Amino acid sequence: MPFTLGQRWISDTENELGLGTVVAVENRTITVLFPATGENRLYAKEDPPITRVKFNPGDIVSHHEGWQLLVETVKEEQGLLTYIGVRQDSDEAAVAIREVHLDSKLSFNKPQDRLFAGQIDRMDRFALRFRARKYQSEQYRLPFAGLRGMRASLIPHQLHIAHEVGQRYAPRVLLADEVGLGKTIEAGMIIHQQLLAGRAERVLIIVPESLQHQWLVEMMRRFNLYFSLFDDSRYSEAMQDSSNPFETEQLVICSLDFVLHHRQRLAQLTAAQWDLLVVDEAHHLVWSSDAPSEQYLAVEQLALHVPGVLLLTATPEQLGQQSHFARLRLLDANRFHHYDEFVAEQQQYRPVADAVALLLSGERLTDNQLNLLGELIEEQDIEPLLKAANSDSDNSLLARQELVTMLTDRHGTSRVLFRNTRQGVKGFPHRYLHQIKLPLPAQYQVALKVAALMDAKKSVEERARNMLYPEQIYQQLEGEHGSWLSFDPRAEWLLEHLLAHRHEKVLVICAKAETVLQLEQWLRQREAIRAAVFHEGLTLIERDRAAAYFASQEEGAQVLLCSEIGSEGRNFQFASRLIMFDLPFNPDLLEQRIGRLDRIGQMHDIQIMVPYLENSAQAVLVRWFHEGLDAFEHTCPTGRTIYDSSHAQLIHYLAAPTEQQGLDEFVHHCRQQHNQLKAQLEQGRDRLLEIHSNGGEKAQALAAAITAQDDDVALISFAINLFDIIGINQEDRSDNLIILTPSDHMLVPDFPGLPQEGCTVTFDRQQALSREDAQFISWEHPLIRNGLDLILSGDTGSSSVSLLKNKALPVGTALLELIYVVEAQAPKQLQLSRFLPATPIRLLLDRKGTDLAAQVEFESFNRQLSSVNQHTGSKLVNALQSEIYQMLLAAEPQVEQQAAALVMQAKQEADDKLSTELARLQALKAVNPNIRDDEIAALSESREQTLMHLNDARWRLDAIRVVVVTHQ
C-alpha cells in the first residue's frame, strides 16, 4: 500500500501506543509518530507490522479537540481520508474531519473497529469469549441459582428452605430446625442468594460471642462470603474512618453483648441501613408482655428498621409457646400483636393438620371429608382435584400432593416458620456410647485434695470446673515438669486404642489446647502415631492444613487432636470414631462435639468413647449426660432447659465428686424431667409444618438437579481454559486437587479471589467437604464469576481471524462469524437475568449474507480452524474490508429478527411467572394473614418494572471472527 504523509496507522504489536501518523516516507522506510505517547517508530516499507485505520459510515470518531462525529460518508483524496457527518455536541450536519486531526488516544471498543484497526486476538480467546457468553446465559436461567456454589452436602430439606426463602423480597422468617439439621447452612444459602440476586447488599449477623468465629469461618469456607467481625478493637479502628463505623463494611458479624456494651452502638447499627439481619440463638431473647429483656428490645429495634430478618432458634416450643410467640412478634409485630389471639388461632389449624394427614394416608375420602377439604380451600374451585384425589387413576397422587400444597400455603405460620426434626428428616447414623472406667491415680488423688484446700475461697462453680481437669491441677502443683502422661490411664488407653485401629480415622476432643499439644507429642514419641492438632492458637490457614492432613486418605494423620474449638464449625463426617478425652461443662457443647461426626451423609454408625476416671468429676458428668439426659446416643433438645434448672445441684456434685449422697435421685429426677419435656415436644410436633418445611419430592428433585450439575464436565474444561488464558499457573495434585498460583503474565496484576500465595481447588463436592483447605469450584465461585467478568467486560477475544482448510471451497472464500448479545439493563434486584440474561446469538455468514450457523455447530467448526499471527490477520482484514462491511450490513436484519423473538419469549415468561405468583399471594392473603402487604406491593412493582425494562432490551455486536479458506 502506498504511504502518504498524514495517514493514520496503528501498531499491530504495540496497541498501547495509540493512533500513529506517518511523518516521513523514505525509499525503503517510513517513520510513524504516535502523539499519545510522543514516540516515533521506524518501519521497513515492505510489509511493516502496522494496520491502516479506516472508519466506516455509522462509526463515531473523535476530533483531537475533544468533540465527536457520527460518520455518514468517507472520501479519499491523494491517499488521505476525510470523514463527513453530524457533529454530536451541536447536531451540525456536513462537518468534515481530516484523518490527520483524529484523536490519537482513540480507543477501539466495537469489535468491528478493533478488527479493522488490526487489534486482533488469538483464536482461543475468541472461543473462550463465546463459551463464556453461552455458559453465563445458561447458568442464569437455572432455577437454583445461588444454591449450588456452597461447600456443603446437597441435603433436600436445607435446599428447599433456602430456595423457598431466598427468592423472596425482604424475607422475614424463623428457621427452627432441630440441632444438627443445618440452620446455619440454610441461613448462609439464603444470604448467598440474596447477595447474588442483588436483593441485599448489606448484611448484619448477630450471634453469641462464643459463636462469632464459627460463623465467620462458616460464611468464608462454605459460601466465599468475607464478613468483618466487629469487636471493641475493630470498632475503634473503624471510628477513625467514619462517624458510623458500621458503614465501613457491607457484611458484618458482631455479638449482642458487644452491641449492648455502649448505647451508642445500637443507635449506629440501627442507622446503618442494613438489607438483611440474621440473629442466631434467638431463643435466648427473653420476653414477656410487661418485662422484655434488654437483648430482646435491642433486636426488636433493629428488626423494625431492617427489611429482611432471619431468626435462628432451637425447637420453637422448647421454651414455651409464649417464647415462640415473642420470636414471631419480632418478624411481624402487626401480625403477631396479641398473645391470647395467637394461641386461639393456633388451635384453629387442627382441622387443617388432620386434613393433610388424611390426604397423605392414601385412604379413600368420605363425603364428609371431601366437604371439609372444600371448606378449607373455599376460595378456589377444587372439585376436579377432589375427584382425581379420590379416584384410582394415575393422577390421584398428584392431585393429593396439590391439595396438600394448597393446605400448607394456608396454614397459620408456615410462611414465616420452618422446622424440621430428625424424626421427620431421617438419614442419620446411630450413636453408640462406650464408657471406659479407669482407676483414679494416687497422684491425682493427692493433687485434688491439695487443690480443694487451696481453692476453698473460690466459688463452687470455679471449683467444679477445675475438678473436671485433674491433669491441669497436677501440673499447676508440680510445675512444667509434672509429667501426668506417665501415669494417667486415659493416655495409655488412648494409645492402645489407636494402635488397635490403625486404619481408622479417629477424632479426639479435649477441653484445653495444652492437653492437645501434650498428647500429640507423647503419642509421637511413644509409637510414632501420625497426629494432627487443631486448637485456638493456630491461624485459620494452619487449622485448614491440620484438617486437610487428617482428611487425606493416602498419607494423612490417623488422629486429629482438637481442643474445644474443634467442635465448632468443622465437619469430619469421613470419620466415625470420636474419643472424648474429657467432657465439656454443658450439654450444648457435648452435642457440638458429637455433631462434628453425626451429620446427614455420615455413612457409618458413630462410636463414642469416653475414658473417665472413677470417683472424679468426669465420672459424675458422664453419668449425668448419659443416664440423666440420654445425650450421648440421641440428640438432647431438653439439655439446656434441664441444665439451667439443675445447675446448682450439678456443680455441687462436680465440685465434690466423692460426696455422692443424693446423686442417684438427682440423676433419676433429671431423666424424668427429660422424658416429660421430650414427650411434650413430640406431642407438640406440628407435622403439617414439618411437611411444609421438608419440601417432599420437590426438595428431592432440587437436590437431584444440582447433583447433575455437579457432574457437568463443561465447567472443568471451561475453568481450565479460563485459568490458562488469564495466566494462572495450574499444578495437578492427587485426590482431584489443583493448585492455582498467580503468574507474572496474567491479564490483570491481582486477580480477585486468587490469593498471592495461591490456593488449592477441587471440582468435586465430596472432596471439598473432606478437605477444608480446598476450595470448591462451581459456576458460582468468585474465581469463575470474576473470570467471566474479566473476559466479558473487556475486549478479550472480541475480534479474531482464523484459517479454514477445506478443499471443497475455493481458496480465499471468506466467512464471517458474528456473536451478538441481546441484553436489557435494569436494577440488579429485579433479577432480569431469570428471563433474559445477556444472551448470545451466533451468525455465520457467507459473502451472500446467508446464515450457516444452524448447519455449522460452533465447537466442531472451531476445531477445524487454525490460527494466524496478528500481522497476517491484519493484512487479510484489509484485503476483505469492504466485503466484511457489506456482510455486517446483511447481518443486521437477521439478528434483529432473532433478538425480537428472544425478547418476546422473555416477556411472556416473565409475565406468566410473576403474574401467577402475584395472583397466588393475593388469593392467599384472604386466608393467610402471614402474606405481608409490602411483599405483594414489591412483587407487583417488580412485575411492572421487569416488563418495562424488557421492552427496552437491545442487541449489540460482541465479537467478530473472519474465517478465510485455504488449501494448505
Question: Layout of helices and strands, plus pairs?
Answer:
Elements: E1 8-11, E2 19-25, E3 29-34, E4 39-44, E5 50-52, E6 60-62, E7 68-77, E8 80-87, E9 95-98, H1 111-116, H2 123-141, H3 156-166, E10 172-175, H4 183-197, E11 203-207, H5 212-223, E12 228-229, H6 232-239, E13 251-255, H7 256-260, H8 263-271, E14 276-279, H9 294-305, E15 308-312, H10 321-331, H11 339-347, H12 350-361, H13 367-376, H14 383-389, H15 396-410, E16 417-418, H16 422-425, E17 431-438, H17 442-454, H18 460-467, H19 470-478, H20 489-500, E18 506-509, H21 513-527, E19 531-534, H22 540-551, E20 559-562, E21 577-580, H23 587-595, E22 606-613, H24 617-628, H25 639-655, H26 663-683, H27 687-694, H28 696-710, H29 713-726, E23 729-733, E24 737-741, E25 759-762, H30 765-770, E26 774-776, H31 782-793, E27 799-805, E28 814-823, E29 839-845, H32 858-863, E30 865-867, H33 870-925, H34 933-951, E31 954-966
Parallel strand pairs: 10-15, 10-16, 11-13, 11-14, 12-13, 14-15, 17-22, 18-20, 18-21, 19-20, 21-22, 25-26, 27-31
Antiparallel strand pairs: 1-2, 1-5, 2-3, 3-4, 6-7, 7-8, 8-9, 23-24, 24-25, 27-30, 28-29, 28-31
